[in-house]
Each structure stands twice: as C-alpha cells, then as structure tokens.
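During data preparation, we tokenized the protein backbone, and the record follows.
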Amino acid sequence: MKRRFPKLAALPLLATAILGGVCLQRACAPAALAPAAAAAGELPADTSIAPIHPRAEAPERRVYAVTLARHVKVGGETFVKTYLEGRISFLPIPGTNLWEARLVDVSLDASGGETPTMADLRRPILLAHDEEGRLVGVRFDPRTDSPSRLLLTSLVAATQYTRGKGAAWSADELDGSGVYRADYEREGERVIKRHKQGYVRMHEGLTPLTAEGALRITVDEEGRIESASAREASRATRKTALGEVEGTLEVSLRLVDRGEATSAEIAAARLLAFDHEEPRMAAPKRDRSTSRRDMDERRAAGHDLAELRAAFAETDGLPRDKVGERRAKLIHTAGALFRVSPEEAIEAGKQLAASDVTDAEANFLAGALAAAGTEEAAHALAETLTSAEATIEAQRQSAVSLALLPVADADTVAALSKGAESEDPALQNLSTMALGSEARTLAANGDVGEGLDPVADLLARYTSATDDATRDMLLAALGNSGDPRAFEVIRGALASPRLAPTAAYALRFVPIPEADTLLHALATSSTEAVVRQAAYRAAFFRDAASWLPWLEVALGKEKDPQVIDVIHTVIAHMSSP
C-alpha cells in the first residue's frame, strides 16, 4: 500500500500559503523594499562583500517597536493564532545589497500550528535586494527552524515599500506566497498608502489564494520611514475537508530609536554574509521532511496521551471563541505525538474503542488519529468501527476521520463496509460517504483490485436501493469516488427531481469529457436553480481552461442571485494563478 501526505496534516501547509512561506531563489522575481531599506538610495546588486559604498560610510541603525498578529481559521474555527511584540532593528551593511534585521526584547504568544522558538526568532537575518534596492529574499542562519522563518518573512514582507515618483505608481512585489501587484498613492507630503489585491503568480507548490491588503506609511522630511501599519486578509481558493481556510495578518512598526552604527556592529553584520543561506522567502523544499520530523518531535516533547486527553476534557466550559482554538491545538499536538510514537496511536485506538469513552473524548481521540495521518492511526480507527464494545459516537467519529485520511486498504474498507450496514442511520451515512473517499484514494494509489473495489459495491447497492433517500446517499458516495464507472448511474439519476442536485454535484471528479458536456447542459438548460447551482459547484473542480471563458458568458445570462454567487466563486478560483 502506498502512502501520501495526510490531508489533515496538510492544513499547516495551507496556513503557510496564507501567511507566506516557500523556497524562493533570488532570481525568481523582484519584490519591494523592507521598511529600513526604503530609506536608502541605490545599492550594488552583488550579494558578496564589496568595498564600502561611498553613500553608506556611516550607516544608521534604526529601531522600531513592532507588533504582529496573525490568525488562520479552518471552517470558521481558529487553527493558528500568533501575537508577537518587541523591537526590530535595521542596519544597512556598507558596500553590499544587504540589510541586517534582528528582533530584540521580543515576546510571543502562539497557539495552533508549529510554534517558533525564541532563540531562532532572535537570530539576525539578512534582507537581500536587487540593483534597484528592492527586496528579493531573506537570508537565514541555517539553524533557524521553519516556523521562525515563516514568521520573520511575514513580518518583513508585509511592511515592504517600493519607492516611486509622482502622486501614484505601481510595482510588482514579492512575499512568501507569490508575486502581487501593489498600487501606491501619496496623501500629502508624509503619508503613502499601498493597496494589494490578488497574486500575479503563486510560488510553486502553494495553494492558490485570494488576498487583499493595505499598508499605510509615514515618512520624515528625508523620506525615511517613521511608522508603518499593514493589514492583509487571505483565503485559499480550494476548500479542505474541514471547510474554507482563511487568514489575517496585521503588522505595525513605529520608530523608537536611531543612531550611527559602531564599527563593531558593522563588522558583526558583515560576518553574517559568510554563513547565512542564500536569499529565500522560507525553508527550502528539500528540508521539509526533516523539518517536519523535527517539528513533530519539538511539539510532542513533554507530552503523552494521558496528559493531552485530560487537557482536552478541561476545555469544557471555556468560552466558545476559546474552546475551538484550544482543542485544535491539543488535537494537532496529539497527531504529532502519534507520528513520533506510533505505539501511542495504537493506544489511542484502544481507548477510542472502550465502552466508557465519552463523546468529547471520542472527538479528541478520533480527531488526533486523523491528524496523525499514519497507517497505525487508520488501523486504530478501523478497529474501533468493528469493535463490539465501542460506543456509537466513537464509531461515527472514526468513520469521519477515515474519510479524511490518505490511507486506504483492505482493513479500512472492510471496517467502513461494516459501518455502512449499521442500523444507526448516521453511522451508515458517514461510513458510506467515507467508502467513496477511500475508493478515490485506492484509485490514486493504484490499489484497486479484485476483492478491494468499493465502487463496485456502491453501484450494486444503488441498483438494489428501494428509496430515494438511500439512492441520494449512494450518489453522494459515488461522487466522492470520482470513478468513471459511476457516470451512467449519475446521468440516469438526473431525471429524478429529488436526486438531480446530488447527481449534478457528483460529476465533479469524474475524469471524462462526457462529464463536462453534461455539466454544461445542466448549467445551461435546467429549469431548477438548485440543479444549476450544483452544476456550477461541480465546475469548481473541473479544468479551468475549458470552463473559464464559458463561465464569463454564463454570468451575464444567469438571473438567480444564489447561482450567480456560485459562478463568481468559481471564476475567482479559476482565475487565480
């Protein structure tokens, strides 16, 4: 059986996309200046140490009070929450295109995701610029962990500033998510505003985003930055199994000190150029697997299953805006623990299958096993589904978690098939939906074969179904599979007013041209708005090149406001780089 990266474990990568952070070499694209760099004139393009530039013989270190707040929500629940406060200094290194930046007196309050270490946040970084003085990357100490790289990159990228002439100008700028167009406008002599909307190009491997942001800068008489405040909002265009991923980032800078740098400070800054990495906007791709293992070990350090389970129980009674955040953090900490220590995942499965487990505990244990995304976790969930002792809620939660996992084999399919025969309607429905998802995983991994073919079983059940409620459930499961064998059954179901909306949406993953033809026909000719809406929702997952021109035309013809909203969403998704 082949394995893929866990779907739930991939959520931090979506958060990374929203807050910025992938490997980017200096040659990828130019960006703008960091706040301190905006005060300088032209700088040499060469990143190597060069003779002292005559315009930078007495560089000034400028110190700013800084705050940063970032939030990532998944399905409306807070997934990552970070607040940083401290001071950051900027020092141009004479004769180079580099600026040293370092955080001092920093405090950090973070929950969810991977937490930066204070030691790594305090390490000085180098901001590299091109011949026009625009930021092209951040150079890190090789020891800096990925969460710290992400946070520091977010900070300097959000407040970057490209100088221009006149009352208004535009520039292509770079952050950790991609290249975007920035529009600048002067307000009087000392205020400059920047508007950011969308991305011209995303960095390789990141989920497409929609984004909007504003930056307000005040400068002194010489054009050097005195303060800056930035706010950005981003949303991933692809939904996860848990819902939409959206984030906000707010950064403020306020000048609090300035003074001529000493020769010792300049010499120390110069030495950094010899041991810091090449300019990037986050950790290199090649470090991800090792970095993930390291982050899991750091996150799991000092924790065990009993302690995490007790902490989850203590969340009862917390305010609604706090309980989701706290539980998400505990679930993902447990997921890291299960990846580091598979035996803990096996133990969690035993506890989940126990007859005395509460509903809240079942939610925690099943969610943590899903977050782990491992074979051990999948089999622990499967054993709960087949256990005679397990509570019905534990079995329901296990079915949901198996639908989210990228692990599918004979054991998980057999367990879900048993759940699909349950007398409990909810467990029957959840297990059937999960079988469709498992079928898609099996097909992607090349593991479908004789005796392991959930789609064949789902089709047989559909043929023998005697009521529309059961047929509707099976159509949805077949839609999850994306198997071409389901196409004729789906097309036949469109004749039923009761089944047509589910059938239209079930076409979204079917990888044949006939599915697109049928969706076009439904979107164009169906007299039922709910069917047209389902057809456009399915188009969200189809090929943009063939659908986008047609959607633009359809937008002008559609009259139903809810269907129009769906078309707008699909166009925005397909128009993203």
Observations:
- The first helix runs from residue 11 to 19.
- The longest strand covers residues 77-92.
- Confidence is low (pLDDT under 50) at residues 1-56.
- Residues 302-448 form one domain.
